[in-house]
Amino acid sequence: MNAPDRFELFLLNEGEKKITEKPFAGMSNTSDFIIMKEDHTIGNLLAEHFKQHPHVMMAGYKVAHPNVPEVLIRLQTDGTITPREVFIDVCKQLVASLGQLAQNFTREYELRRMAGAGDDNHAGGGGAGKP
């Protein structure tokens, strides 16, 4: 079978860097970022958020082959800040957004769990049950 071992798709090898930046000589203020052990999920997420950044002129990604777990992201800015600064800024925003999502999810889950426990206690308490 041609497929690599499953763990090779997400574990970094010894000395392997998660993200590398290579300035792209063909266009000004442009860098290629290669993200190892990732796929379309992270590529699309980052590219779409890069496009929303006010200093980004162009952003896109590609996955060379499904059996090669790496994503190439090309990012061009207007020159007021570097592509690396945009990359870091967008990643910080995403971490904050996902942290807020996790907090909201946990709060809603706990509220529903408490409401469910209250209904269970109320239903078994004799006399006045649910209609």
Describe the fold and architecture:
It is flat and about 70 Å long. It contains 2 helices and 4 strands. 41% of the residues lie in helices and 21% in strands. The protein has a 4-stranded antiparallel β-sheet with strand order 1-2-4-3, with helices on one face. With 131 residues, the chain is of the alpha+beta class. The model has no long low-confidence stretch (mean pLDDT 89).
User: Beta-strand level of the residues, as a percent range?
Assistant: 15-25%
General shape: flat
- pLDDT under 50 segments (min length 5)? none
In angstroms, what separates the terminal alpha carbons? 61 Å
* Assembly form of the protein: single chain
The helix fraction, in percent, is 40-55%
**Structural class computed from helices and strand pairing:** alpha+beta
| Major β-sheet strand ordering | 1-2-4-3
Number of strands: 4
Mean pLDDT across the residues is 89
- Biggest beta-sheet profile: 4 strands, antiparallel
Number of helices: 2
What is the C-alpha radius of gyration, as a whole number of Å?
23 Å
Please trace the helix and strand order, writing H or E for each element.
Answer: EEHEEH
